[in-house]
Amino acid sequence: MRKLNKRKLNEKAFILALAVYPIIHFGIFWVYVNSSTIISTFMRYSVRTNSLKFCGFDNYVTIFKKIFLGGDPALGRAFINSFQAIGINALIFPVALFASYAFYKNMPGTKVYSVMFYIPQLISIVVLAMAFRYMFYSDFGPVAILIARIAGVEKVDLISTSSDYLWTVIWLFCIWSGLGSNVILIRGAMLRIPKELVESAVLDGCGFFRELWSITIPMCMSTISVYIVSASMSATSFTMAPMLIAKSSGSMGRFMTYSWFIFENASTTSPGTIISVTTMGVFFTIVNLPLMIMARVLTKKATPEL
Amino acid sequence: MQKREVEEKSKILNANKPFLIFMSVIFAVYSITLVFPFLWLIFNSLKGKFEFMDNPMAMPQALQWKNYITMFVEFDLGTMFLNTILMSTIIPTVQLFITAGVAYVCAKFKSITGKVCYFCAMVQIYVTISGTLPTTYKLMADTGLLDSLFGLVFMGSGGLNFSFLLIVAIFQNISNDYKEAAEIDGAGNWRIFLQIYFPQVFSIIMAHWLLAFIGQWNNYVAPKLFWPSAFTLATGIQDLSNRVASGVFAMEYPKLFAAMIITIIPVLVLFIVFQKPINKMNAGGGIKG
Amino acid sequence: MKLLKKIAICFTAALLLTSSAFATACGGTSGGEENNLRITFYEGGFGRKWLETLASDFIEKKNAEGVTIKITLDGQGADIDENVNTYLSSGRNLSDIYMVRTKADWASDVTSGYLANLNSVYETEVEKLDGSKIKVKDFMLDEIANMPYMQKVPEQGSSYPWIMPWSVLETSIIYNEDLLKATVRSSTGGKWETAPKTMIELAELCDDINKTSDAKGYGNTQPIAPFSWSMGGVNYFQNIIFALWAQQQGVESSNIAGEGSYYDFWNFDSPDVWKQTGITIAIDEWKKIIVGDDGNWKNSLLSNTFQESAYAFCGQNAVMYLGGSFFENEMSGALDKNGDGKADFSYKMMTVPLSENGIEKDGHGAVVNYCSTDDMMFVPAKAANVELAKEFLAFMCNEKYLLDFTKETGCLRPFKYDPVKLTEGDENVKWSDFFYSCYDMMKSDYNIFNYPKTASEQNKVSLIYIYYRPQLFQGLGIATVCGDYLLTKTGKEIMTGKGGVFSYAEKFWNECKLKLEY
Q: Where in chain C is the domain with CATH 3.40.190.10?
């Protein structure tokens, strides 16, 4: 009996030793941080007393007015810009799907391409963005020089903040850097489809594209739904691409996104700024929530039960 | 005979050669666009400052290898490397060890603690609130952990993440017979974990470690905000790119390009050597960054 | 392949071990060492040589007093402006002195207790080269002497200084004198001899440059534009507008009935300051130069970045460039490409030309010179060597070192010293033509700053200025006004039209009033 108790005690100690730290970590970095963030959104900073005072929903009302009633055009623009991430993902998806299918069907050069497509994943986004951006510099970028020659002009402005093409360049960067990893992800799911299923479908007369629609996509739905759900959340984290390609937010926040604004103001010593930024973040999460829920519900419905 | 016929049929029916050739051409173009910028950076990194500005498309007249040496001497690229190595090795190691430990506990012990951990992991993955960065920043500042490697390691060592879910599933698939047999032989819990179960998942953990290493190597946000006094390769290169705009480093594009090439060599080497396990992970998805 | 993998694994393991050893060793400091003064400064623009000389002289001085000290100079890029917040918040890796390009929220830092009180610095007597002594606070330029002062808690207690301005940077129009003198002047048939004195002359010059360039009068193969600038440097439009606005509005006393002066604007006593007529006139005057009737930029060679536009000017692709007194030091390499120690062409800076019907002084149109003094130095309250840092800041204000700074960088510190007079007869000092042009600009009728000088003299600087420092184009931002809006709107539409500056400024002002509990 004593031995059993000792063993149970040892077991409990072992479990606690391994599990306590992660739970405490969760308590600090999820529970405390999130609750503190939410509480701060109901406070106002008083310069006179250097302290926080409760102010109800005032901060949310202010943010709502700034974004939706023209109170701050830069913030309003940042809000809309953030949702471009969803558009970019929507564009990447069909391209990645067809590309993955071609990989899956062992198109010529599959082995070489599967290595090349890893390059954007391996390289820091900072270096990737810089390399991409320099291609479009009007003074020395090869792409800019080529376009200028074709258009018969001396210089083309593609990446200054007054350029009409900068958002196009940002979209191109996102597709260029994101396509490879998405192709690898979806192709990985396709490779797990049982060969017998494909063979029997072929025997039944299933064609190339019919196979894609009726077998491949449904069988990869769990992976595709992960993609769709993360795409629905992508607006909340669309920071690096616009920040590194545009470098500056431009007039009236033309290239600013929400998460970029939060990142830029995260390291502030001003309590007032902290409150503004946290309120914006929580507000944006609330606004984005229906989209995320809808994505989860729809993908769950679309995933066949196997 | 019949099987061969089926295989032949499947090859013919589902090959759609025109489509595959078309996609192959598209991929060839895409692959060229992936490689070309870095080739352009390499040959321009061997030029002088004004030579580059005057003729960016020409080949270098004299190869200025000193640009590479200058980056180590003048801009302390060596320290940036060291900081990046520290961050990229310590954080994944600590994190994955903790993850493996808590995953083992959840998979192999029927306890409320395990259920709590699982619940916390699910909450952390699926419930995300924007705008917590300033609060996290303030927390780190108030606790004296801001601007330190220890603070970064502490932040990144949670253990209840996506890897945790994967490793729990793997542990669950390993038979409990090992544990029972070892207990009969008098082995303690630590011994069973470290000498029996942990080695069985080591290859998976190594694959996760490699990906985490690459992730930390390229991490920009965390060191920028939480360890700014120590430049890593990502934050250092970004700082250098701002310096080419004005001041003593103005227009030193070739040197900047040299620094960029230097930073990508280690990860490329690592990928070439460990290609298979990395391929197996198939990580990624969505927009980069 | 297997052998290669084994080697790679061993290498990785060795790396891990070394890294862990380093990690334990490099635990990170919680601040500096005693008697090791660490100075973190923005290195771009001024370089570090001026500071190295200062540092070694200060060490010598302390040695003579029997105190052994070290000085560590930590030059940083532009990121220091943001990163300094981390150092102040965390108290880790804190330097003893920070010299940054800008820190708009320094007042918040004072209230939060992050900055050290510099009263002893300003009360220190420093030496002038003629042997006389003067207190630092009396030695500073009158226009900004009160700028570093504020109460730690709003409207409570005494006012103390908390920062030290670093430099005075004049910004205006830099011009290629060789190309200017080669430009045919249509009105006289001869050539331009001096820089334009009025905005009308400036417009005339731009037309003449275009005509001369088209006729290849410069011996040019490529077109030569009147101005080189970039959207990355569009804030330099604002600097021109400031000077024109002050000329219209009146600098210290109002020139327009019912409205305040230029300096009154900066106190933000009410949102109506944004309705000042002088601003709209200034915008329209500048717009006439830079925007064509077709709504596109004119007279311009546009580049991606500020530095590329400077390079284009140095390549003699434009006659004029919007820059500042730091230009010569910053672009020295591009100005002397062949490295023979001589600039490839003659260049100077002109004062902003006179606005039509602007204020007068002493019977002539008042010349207004806009100066920026955003860059600053401060001492963190928790630094390891606070008193030593303050001593160093005071030491920097000795006239010898002010002069050394100017000799090395071509820029001025915000003190009442005359570098040309101080080096008269010194064969070793040869000021460049560019420097002389900047020096002459400081003798303008008015040197203006974006600071409420008039209110400060009456101890009535508003809390909104201190804590929130609104901008001229509040809410819209410079890039909008000096970019998209300038192409399509008039000055009045920009400032007071629908969706104009005033509408945002008014909301911002009311928000600030709420936060400050007026």
A: 36-168+374-431, 171-371+458-516
Amino acid at B13: L
CATH hierarchy code of domain C171-371+458-516: 3.40.190.10
| Interface contact flag, A14 B190, Cβ < 8 Å | yes
Q: List, as ranges, residues 38-57 from A with C-beta within 8 Å of B.
A: 38, 40
**B86–C contact, CB cutoff 8 A:** yes
Please tell me the distance from the alpha carbon of residue A63 to that of residue C372, in angstroms, as a whole number.
33
* Percent of chain C with pLDDT strictly greater than 70: 94
What's the whole-number mean pLDDT along residues C194-211? 97
CB-based contact, B270 to chain C, within 8 Å:
yes
Domain around B41: 2-67
Residues in C touching A48 (Cβ below 8 Å): 153-155, 516-517
Look over chain C and give the mean of its residue pLDDT values, rounded to a whole number: 90
B265's CB contacts (< 8 A; 6+ apart) are none
CB nearest to C8's CB, from B50, B244, B273: B273
Contact B245 C28 (CB under 8 A): no
- Last residue within a domain, chosen from B47, B67, B87: B67
ipTM beyond 0.90? no
pLDDT at A147: 94
Q: Looking at the partner chain, which of C112, C304, C499 has a beta carbon nearest the beta carbon of A269?
A: C112
Instruction: Give the residue-averaged pLDDT of C439-464.
Output: 93
Dist. CA B135–CA B6, nearest whole Å: 62
Decide: C313 and C174 in contact? Cβ < 8 Å: yes
Mean pLDDT throughout A210-226?
Answer: 87
Average pLDDT over residues B205-224: 89
Answer whether residue B287 is part of any domain: no
Please tell me the CATH superfamily of domain A72-122+160-302, with its number. Answer: MetI-like (1.10.3720.10)
pLDDT tens digits along B145-183? 988 999 999 999 988 988 898 899 899 888 888 888 888
The gap from C-alpha B36 to its chain's centroid, in whole angstroms, comes to 23
pLDDT in tens, B68-84: 888 877 778 888 989 99
Between positions 3 and 42 of A, the ones with CB within 8 A of B are 10-12, 14-16, 18-19, 21-23, 25-26, 28-30, 32-34, 36-38, 40
Looking at the predicted structure, is the pLDDT value of residue A70 above 60?
yes
**CB under 8 Å to C334, separation ≥6 — which residues?**
B50, B250, B251, C310, C311, C314, C315
Q: What is C36-168+374-431's CATH number?
A: 3.40.190.10
* Stretch 252-281 of chain A: residues touching chain C, C-beta under 8 Å: 252, 267-273
Q: Using the beta-carbon criterion (under 8 Å), do A131 and B38 form an inter-chain contact?
A: yes
Q: Is the dihedral of CA A152, A153, A154, A155 positive or negative?
A: negative
Work out how many domains chain B is built from and give that number.
2
Domain ranges of chain A: 2-59, 72-122+160-302
B162 and B262 together in one domain: yes
Q: What is the mean pLDDT of residues B214-225?
A: 90
Taking a C-beta distance cutoff of 8 angstroms, is the pair C184, C172 a contact? no
pLDDT exceeds cutoff 60 at A144? yes
